[in-house]
Fold this protein.
Amino acid sequence: MKGYEDLINVLNSILADELNAINQYLVHSEMCENWGYAQLYLAIHGQAMDEMHHSDWLMERNNFIERAPKVSKLIPVTTLKSIAEIIAEDIDVNINAVNSYNNTIKLANEIYDQVTDELLAIIAKTDEDYEAWNQIQSSQLKQINKENYMMNQALN
Ligand SMILES: [Fe+2]
């Protein structure tokens, strides 16, 4: 069916974004751990695990609709040099993810696929929460002095 063909293609694209997000968050969390920022490590590593669930759910949905998911669009993770850069990049990923989910929800609604609609809304809410968390970190980095913010993140 034409509508489902479009939806499957978009779901594969979103799946690739989720898999890229896992890689990005794992690299970022390990960098934070290596720098001694235990709190940031725990938070970002937890986000990577949630992105794994999102990927799993998208694969399951794609399989149910018609066919095996495609996972061929992985991109390299950029090596960053500071917490501010990590947070800025993770904000971008989450903003893009929420936009993609909102557009895909519209597509699912056009073909009356309420199950996909509800699944995508749940995932989008989590990614939106992560965007908010990253925005808070970005604000705190600017409002508190950088050394105090970093000291708080280093506490176990
Ligand atoms: Fe996600």
About this structure: The longest helix spans residues 2-35.
